[in-house]
Design a protein that fits this description.
Order of helices and strands: HHEEEEEEEEEEEHEEEEEEEH
Number of strands: 18
Strand content: 25-35%
Number of helices: 4
Strand order of the largest sheet: 3-2-4-5-8
Largest sheet: 5 strands, mixed
Structural class: alpha+beta
Shape: elongated
Number of domains: 2
Distance between the termini: 41 Å
């Protein structure tokens, strides 16, 4: 097993290597080589900074993770929905009585709006009907009261409701995500071994449900003489790899449940793990979101001091 290969050798490392030569052979390092290395480091730092800016722009989106203001589970049965306290599902806005949600033991949930609620779906008045979830093609069905939106999600066999508000307090208060300083040493080239056929891994979500996931292979690397293996999940062959990881910073400097790392699909027998791009999962940014936690196989016995730290407004 070869050791990890880093994106670039720092200028200090170049100078140190030059200093190891015998005295009669010592000479100033090649100026072009030093400049090229420095330029490579600067280009890498700039690429990570651009990634961060693009990620924060997505988080500032009125339809992003920070727009959630309400959530809950929905049992089989009939549920009155609205902002008044006499409802079974109390949402944080809109009319006092939105209508009645019915979740059958089998088949699609159905919503019947109150006559004077003024609700809309796809910009048109909503007269009632079945509600799609995110697992259904074309879903989820968003029921709007102005800019605010109520809809259903499903995790396994469990239904839940979500409420979005583009004027949410969390979105208005967002001031960026703290992170470790960028360190090119945490951009690691790992050995990739594909599984034939792909394996299955059960992921535990933050609401306790189990989600089976497709595992196409493993990434293996050595750090400080220790071998480490990570298992990614992948929806379909050719998609990017999705690593759900935890380490000895988890629950201290970083979110305890996991951090997410997205990686382009491997080419050949190598895959690049850029931990400077390790990010908080949505549930670390907003308590109204459910996401997978790191499986035991991806809980590393080392401190990954790279990527995003715990978000200060995490629920």
């Amino acid at each position: 097993m070869k050791h990890v290969r880093l994106i670039a050798v720092s200028v200090s490392a170049v100078l140190a290597l030059a200093g190891c030569k015998p005295a009669q052979e010592s000479a100033a390092p090649d100026a072009d080589a030093v400049t090229a290395t420095a330029d490579t480091d600067q280009a890498y730092l700039a690429s990570v900074e651009q990634w961060r800016q693009e990620r924060e722009a997505r988080l500032r989106d009125p339809d992003g993770w920070l727009s959630f203001t309400g959530s809950g589970q929905v049992a089989v049965g009939r549920h009155r929905v609205g902002s008044a306290n006499d409802n079974d599902i109390v949402v944080p806005g809109g009319p006092a009585h939105w209508g009645v949600l019915t979740v059958p033991a089998e088949g699609a949930p159905v919503f019947q709006p109150a006559a004077d609620a003024g609700l809309q779906v796809d910009g048109k008045p909503f007269a009632g009907g079945p509600l799609l979830t995110q697992l259904d093609e074309g879903g989820p069905t968003g029921i709007h009261s102005g800019a605010q939106r109520f809809y259903l999600v499903r995790t396994g066999e469990v239904y839940g409701w979500r409420y979005r508000d583009p004027e949410s307090p969390a979105l208005k208060a967002f001031d960026g995500v703290p992170h470790f300083p960028v360190d090119p040493a945490w951009r690691i080239e790992a050995k990739w071994t594909a599984f034939e056929p792909a394996r299955t891994l059960d992921l535990v979500t933050t609401n306790g449900t189990i989600e089976p996931a497709r595992v196409p292979g493993q990434a293996e690397f050595e750090l400080d003489g220790q071998r480490h293996v990570l298992l990614p999940v992948q929806e379909e062959e050719g998609d990017e790899l999705f690593f759900i990881i935890a380490d000895r910073t988890s629950g201290r400097e970083t979110y305890g449940g996991a951090r997410f790392l997205y990686v382009p699909a491997p080419e050949g027998d190598t895959v690049v793990l850029d931990f400077n791009r390790a990010q908080n999962p949505p549930c670390a940014l907003n308590g109204h979101v459910v996401c997978p936690t790191a499986p035991p196989e991806n809980r590393l016995p080392l401190r990954i001091t790279a990527g995003e730290k715990t978000y200060p407004l995490a629920h």
